[in-house]
């Protein structure tokens, strides 16, 4: 529920919504000002349904366990009769997908980004949290030489060993970045994040995702078949690097 304020609407009587910065099927993300703490924050407002409310609560609980320089900090969760609000650190910069499209990342930048992303995921995995939606859109970059990574949007993260909220066989995430087991709707563990991080590095180094395009069924078929080895696309890179990426992206 929002209340009018002389500068803009207030959420929960505390957060002034400044501008919308993103949206999805059931949620909207705003840049907001926290009048209690005197700082700008990001607020994800999730429309209330029984399933989405539970999922948002799990997200906040999972994210609250994490504290790492390369993970967006979650400040808290609040709710009213209409929506669930996830309040987090406001990250300024560009998404990795934007930087890949701009073509201004060096190979060293790509490797630095991958290492920072893996450090963040390692921290999360050590605390039982799987991201399940690692992709360039969910990696924010600030600065240069090398860019500084913030992994964001644990919006579909689930605690390991927590009862799944979606039906068996449901697919959550972006298909072209899913591991084969996730695309099949099977139970996933931390290996799914390693796969998606390796695929993200592959895209950084080659400029494109090898599975993009076509119908969902066609994309899933390509994922199950596996990508062309990195050394075939970038033979100038060290073979050891290609082997590491290929091992992490092994469909089996």
Description:
- The protein is of the alpha+beta class and 252 residues long.
- It is 34% helix and 23% strand.
- It has helices spanning 50-64, 96-102, 107-126, 180-183, 191-206, 216-225, 230-233, 239-248; strands spanning 2-3, 10-11, 15-23, 27-34, 39-47, 74-79, 83-89, 94-95, 129-130, 139-142, 148-151, 158-159.
- The strands form three sheets. It has a seven-stranded antiparallel beta sheet, covered by helices on one side. Strands 8-10-11 form a three-stranded antiparallel beta sheet. A two-stranded antiparallel sheet has the order 9-12.
- A hairpin with a 6-residue loop joins strand 1 and strand 2.
- The longest helix has 20 residues, at 107-126.
- The chain is globular and about 55 Å long.
- The model is unreliable at 1-6 and 159-169 (pLDDT under 50).
Radius of gyration: 19 Å
Total beta-strand segments: 12
Principal-axis shape: globular
Uncertain residue segments: 1-6, 159-169
Distance between the termini: 47 Å
Give the integer mean of the pLDDT values. 85
What percentage of amino acids are in beta strands? 15-25%
**Helix percentage range:** 25-40%
Biggest sheet overview = 7 strands, antiparallel
Return the structural class: alpha+beta
């Amino acid at each position: 529920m929002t209340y009018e304020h002389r500068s803009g609407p207030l959420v929960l009587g505390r957060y002034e919504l400044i501008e919308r910065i993103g949206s999805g099927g059931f949620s909207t993300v705003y840049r907001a000002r926290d009048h209690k703490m005197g700082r700008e924050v990001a607020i994800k407002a999730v429309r209330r349904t029984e399933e989405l409310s539970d999922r948002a609560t799990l997200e906040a609980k999972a994210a609250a366990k994490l504290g790492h320089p390369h993970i967006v900090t979650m400040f808290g969760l609040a709710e009213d009769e209409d929506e669930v609000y996830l309040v987090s650190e406001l990250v300024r910069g560009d998404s990795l997908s934007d930087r890949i499209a701009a073509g201004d990342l060096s190979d060293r930048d790509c490797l630095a980004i991958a290492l920072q992303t893996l450090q963040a995921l390692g921290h999360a995995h050590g605390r039982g949290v799987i991201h399940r939606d690692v992709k360039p859109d969910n990696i924010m970059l600030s600065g240069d030489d090398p860019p500084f990574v913030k992994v964001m949007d644990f919006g579909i993260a689930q605690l390991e060993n927590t009862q799944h909220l979606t039906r068996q066989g449901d697919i959550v995430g972006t298909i072209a970045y899913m591991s084969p087991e996730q695309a099949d709707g099977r139970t996933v563990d931390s290996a799914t994040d390693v796969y998606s991080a390796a695929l993200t590095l592959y895209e950084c180094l080659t400029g494109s995702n090898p599975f993009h395009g076509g119908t969902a069924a066609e994309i899933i078929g390509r994922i199950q078949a596996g990508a062309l080895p990195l050394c075939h696309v970038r033979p100038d890179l060290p073979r050891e690097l290609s082997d590491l990426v290929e091992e992490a992206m092994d469909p089996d």
